[in-house]
Amino acid sequence: MDQERLRAMQFQHPEHIPVSVSLLPATWMKYRDRLDELIRRHPLVFSSRPKSYDDIHNPTYAIGRHVDAWGCVWENVCQGMQAIVTHHPVPTRQSVETLKAPEKDIGLPHGFMYLRLCDLRGFEEVMVDFAEEPPELQRLIDVVLAYNLRQLERELAKVRGKGSQMLYFGDDLGIQHSLPISPAKWRKYLKPCYAKLYGRVREEGHWVYMHTDGHIWEIIPDLIECGVNVLNPQIRANGLDNLVRVCKGNICVNLDLDRQMFPFCTPADIDWHVCQVVEAMGSPEGGLWLTAECAPDVPLENIEAICQALEKHRNHYR
């Protein structure tokens, strides 16, 4: 992790607000050479040229069907976009009783805990489980958590002796306008999982970065208690005012700018949006990173405008 991000994370008066732009594989495929030229024009935003996506090695971004180590069937109809789970290997509560974690070690990919429960059971079924709280729910959680703790120990072993490192985690805990389950149920069943995982990271002297899409602001104080150092939430799903209230001065935020507006707005709208965020969430002490994800429906001129706005407003507190 570069020194500016470290200083911003630790509220140690960074010289600039750290900024970045990420591109879905489908975005790269759509614009190709023009996007390559844009990246060269904005080295402050793109620290390195993204890898070529002509050959997609991650099956979740490739057209077709694949089965993961847990037996979930993923399908994709659009090259460069993410697949979805269309078959859930634990469709009944009875089948939870015979569930065994994979012997294969696959690390901690995006969706390693809460989303893994949804992938195994199906969203509707696991929502009923959280509502009715049968004993099978805790057993399901225990199996997934035990596997994740095993994977985490492998990751910790890789960085042991290398000084403090940032370990990255991703699990989308929210939907567009709310948490899928009540904060009370989340605290009862899921908070202990993240506390155990992130607690181990912090015990080893490392930092925790957590990406989580959706509406999650009510549980951000809980995520801080679990050990998260840098949180990557979405502005549209949570609201700027809510994020200011629960995050500012309490945790470093790598704020996911409004990707839902990028396909439809003007470059002037983008500049105003970034300025508004910086003035509300930023401070000379730090605590703010900015990031923008661009899907293929974002016009190339708007990707350019995002880069220009980030380059401009990263200097707000100089």
Written account of the structure:
The protein has a domain at 1-82 and 257-318. By secondary structure, the chain is an alpha/beta fold. The mean pLDDT is 96. Helix 7 (135-159) packs parallel to helix 9 and helix 13 (267-281) packs parallel to helix 14 (300-313). It contains 14 helices and nine strands. It has helices at 3-9, 25-31, 33-41, 93-96, 114-121, 123-132, 135-159, 183-189, 191-203, 220-226, 235-238, 240-247, 267-281, 300-313, and strands at 19-23, 64-67, 73-76, 84-87, 166-170, 207-211, 230-232, 252-256, 288-294. 43% of the residues lie in helices and 13% in strands.
Quick summary:
The chain has helices spanning 3-9, 25-31, 33-41, 93-96, 114-121, 123-132, 135-159, 183-189, 191-203, 220-226, 235-238, 240-247, 267-281, 300-313; strands at 19-23, 64-67, 73-76, 84-87, 166-170, 207-211, 230-232, 252-256, 288-294. The chain has 318 residues and is α/β, with parallel strands linked by helices.
Shape: globular
Count of alpha/pi helices: 14
Largest β sheet strand count, sense and barrel closure: 6 strands, parallel
- Report the end-to-end length measured between terminal Cα atoms: 21 Å
Map the helices and strands.
Elements: H1 3-9, E1 19-23, H2 25-31, H3 33-41, E2 64-67, E3 73-76, E4 84-87, H4 93-96, H5 114-121, H6 123-132, H7 135-159, E5 166-170, H8 183-189, H9 191-203, E6 207-211, H10 220-226, E7 230-232, H11 235-238, H12 240-247, E8 252-256, H13 267-281, E9 288-294, H14 300-313
Parallel strand pairs: 1-9, 5-6, 6-7, 7-8, 8-9
Antiparallel strand pairs: 2-3, 3-4
Helix pairs in contact: 5-6, 7-9, 9-10, 13-14
